[in-house]
Design brief:
Length: 388
């Protein structure tokens, strides 16, 4: 059996159609998008078309889409751009303790620069405290940030309820969403949800690495965070990766061609894995909510008495790629900050494993994975002093 890949939260395999069109652009359509010559004009038209494909997928207008080098660049453009351009309106920011590192590190940066930041708490399923949100709004609050699909446990934040709370303020409070783990995995319309700024990433949805986009609602002012020659985008100076943009647009087309079917398939896979693990391996704990309140591709489970790193390495020897904790928080030996905020203890955090699916995964892969996982867990528990 080929390697089984259940690490789609970190990155995903580019779709064959994406590889084909990206290669075509790199080989034969590498022309710079500009007018007044045939090839440059053709590239400009294709760039406009790519923007429309992505805008249509979220109910936006093409002029509201800005291409970036990835989700992190989009988050930085949104947060730094908004706060530098609008600090005269207020200097209070709200986010949560379980947000993605892009949001938390930007919040810390602005906090050290004189802004006030309120960090919302979360319940044991990963939902932010809406009562605390309402109580935290002040006259100088100008920005609320959240991670739509939590990167560790998959919790989907209730944006409609959040928007209603923000709209209860006298002043306009801008809402920035990191949707890199949610985009193309749940239905998402920026107008219905009242989103002002939103970051997405191509490589999470079978597109190329190194390309993302920022949605900027018309009327939301952003300052420059990168200075240089203004060629094609008023917020992104310099050139653009046209080949990757073409691949990004193709990945979006494939994902949204039948979004409901894609979501249904991925959720069926994750539900099947969860059921299989819970019926096969004792002493496990699901982290995050069950059912439709979590992103369909994410299953995070703690295996009592053993270290997640050991599970990951032994499963890798069986040809199965999974991750432990958060892909962005597990580089050291610290317990995962999201799981700790949900009330898990150090042992439960360290024993957590995250399985994230794509439409290319199969039931057969899950059956093999659970079979080997049961063997690995049994072996590791037999050696664990916590079991004795």
């Amino acid at each position: 059996m080929d390697r089984i890949y259940f690490n789609n939260c970190l990155t995903s395999k580019p779709a064959p159609e994406v590889v084909k069109i990206t290669t075509e652009y790199m080989k034969n359509r590498y022309y710079f998008p500009e007018n007044f010559n045939a090839m440059g004009t053709a590239t400009s038209k294709n760039l406009v078309k790519a923007k429309k494909i992505i805008a249509d997928s979220m109910g936006a207008d093409s002029k509201e889409i800005h291409f970036t080098s990835g989700g992190t660049a989009a988050n930085n453009l949104a947060i730094k751009g908004y706060l530098t351009a609008n600090s005269h309106k207020g200097t209070h920011i709200i986010c949560s303790v379980i947000d993605y590192p892009d949001i938390l590190t930007n919040a810390a940066f602005f906090e050290s620069s004189g802004f006030d930041v309120t960090y919302l708490q979360a319940d044991n399923e990963g939902f932010i405290d809406l009562k605390q949100l309402k109580e935290s709004i002040r006259e100088d609050t100008i920005l609320f940030m959240t991670t739509l699909g939590n990167h560790t446990v998959g919790t989907i934040q209730p944006l409609k309820e959040i928007r209603e709370i923000l709209d209860s303020a006298v002043q306009k409070i801008t809402m920035h969403i990191d949707a890199c783990e949610a985009y193309a995995r749940i239905p998402l319309n920026v107008n219905e949800l009242g989103i002002d700024l939103m970051s997405i990433s191509a490589h999470k949805i079978h597109g190329p690495q190194g390309i993302g986009a920022l949605y900027q609602r018309n009327g939301i002012k952003l300052g420059l965070v990168q200075h240089g020659v203004n060629r094609m985008d008023n917020l992104q100076t310099g050139g653009l990766n046209i080949a990757s943009i073409a691949g990004f647009a193709k990945a979006v087309e494939l994902a949204f061609d039948d979004l409901d079917a894609n979501i249904t398939k991925i959720r069926e896979l994750s539900d099947y894995l969860l059921s299989k693990i819970e019926s096969t391996i004792p002493n496990t704990l699901l982290n995050g909510p069950r059912g439709v309140k979590r992103a369909p591709h994410n299953i995070n489970i703690s295996f009592d008495y053993i270290e997640g790193e050991a599970i990951m390495m032994m499963m890798d020897m069986f040809g199965v790629s999974i991750s432990t904790g958060s892909a962005c928080a597990s580089q050291g030996l610290k317990p995962n900050y999201v799981l700790m905020a949900l009330g898990r203890n150090h042992e439960q955090s360290h024993s957590s494993m995250k399985f994230t699916f794509s439409r290319y995964n199969t039931i057969k892969e899950i059956d093999y994975t659970v079979e080997k996982l049961a063997e690995v867990v049994k072996e590791l528990r037999s050696r664990s002093p916590l079991c004795n």
